[in-house]
From TrEMBL:
Compartment annotation: Membrane
Record PROSITE patterns: TYR_PHOSPHATASE_1, TYR_PHOSPHATASE_2, TYR_PHOSPHATASE_PTP
Listed GO CC annotations: membrane
Organism per entry: Enterobius vermicularis
Membrane topology summary: Single-pass type I membrane protein
Domain Tyrosine-protein phosphatase: 120-382
Record-given protein name: protein-tyrosine-phosphatase
MF GO annotations: protein tyrosine phosphatase activity
Keyword tags: Glycoprotein, Hydrolase, Membrane, Protein phosphatase, Signal, Transmembrane, Transmembrane helix
Amino acid sequence: MIMAERAADCLAKLGLDSQHSTTNGVTVPDGNTNNNNNNNNSANASLNVPFGHHRRSRSLRERTGADQRLERLPGGALLTQKVIPHTVIAGFNTSISRPVRVADFAEHVRIMSADSDFRFSEEYDDLKLVGNGQPCIAADLTVNRAKNRFTNILPYDHSRVKLMPADDEEGSDYLNASYIPGYNSRREFIAAQGPLPSTRDHFWRAVWEQQCPAIVALTKCVEKGRDKCHQYWPDSEQLTVLYADIEVTLMNETVYEEFIIRELQLTNQRESVSTPRTVTHFHYMAWPDFGVPDHAVGIVHFVRLFRRRLPPSPANRPTVVHCSAGVGRSGTFIALDRSIQAMANEKQVDVFGVVHEMRMERCHMVQNEQQYIFIHQCLLHVLETDYPHFVKSFRTPDATLNNTPGFQMQSEWVSVPRIEVHQNPAFEDDEGIAESGL
């Protein structure tokens, strides 16, 4: 009897009392419904709470620490399971792909954001082990270990970028960089770590050998007093610099509020007849030391400007994208570029599938949950600006009730779900990966 009372008490504390049933997310007792409803209406009136507006209660995970939802079966038993949102297009293998129609994307994000981003957390957890265990033999060779900025961010053997060997020197073909699929080809990008002083020349060898039309840099050289990337390009104080055999000249530099675009000219001094090549350097400077940018507008504009100004490459040569480790910000940028093109051409987007595919080619792409949510926030901005007729609308008597950004359309208040960006100190800065592990 005592044990039964304790069990009932525990269920009551968890909000799972068997004497209650749940309707539309509101817990209602099985008996005395009318009396309790009258009491609740009186209480709401005294508190001046608008009809249908409820205080946000803590999520199940916040209350209990549980990693998954507890669902009640018809017989009253509890079942732990993950539920794929109805907005995901049916017929796909949801372990590797979860596409959502553009028309359903705002609703999808609203569902994923509920209960303190509970479903975002669940979905990101499904990606954490993707690609793990694939061999990194070349990266772990003794001769190559010093070429890695972080000991736990190593390129897989099957997707690593191989340099042309130099005089049969062991390890001369190694660079911490991986081919990453884009929207247009399987090797549209190269995700690389930020060059070290000792790997700067190798970096330029890769750019020359791969005939890269552009480089995207997503980090400052020093952030919060920590070296993130060695400066590998010339500046206004020294317009031409020789990096081993590759001569790089700064031809033009345009400074914007959040980024810089440079035009670089490359010449290979080893080749007797070397035709100069132009490489566009897109350098985004506004990513903060911790987390993600404060807003989506700047990075979305940067991604679109990159796509618009990317020099034509008939042979589909890859663009180099790097941050410090070459996984967090780099993965976020590539995922955005792919997803924005998919929205325009296919009217659907598959963030989960894109990140899954990238992680099969390089570890930890889109390094944390915060970046994963930020990708969705950026795509919501694209949806709001490019496809306003697809934005799900709902009426609200007072916009301050849900504190969401909105705009007017056809005399109706249209509101895009606001994504809560975590400010948890437990989140490391984007590339601040301890060598002992993430």
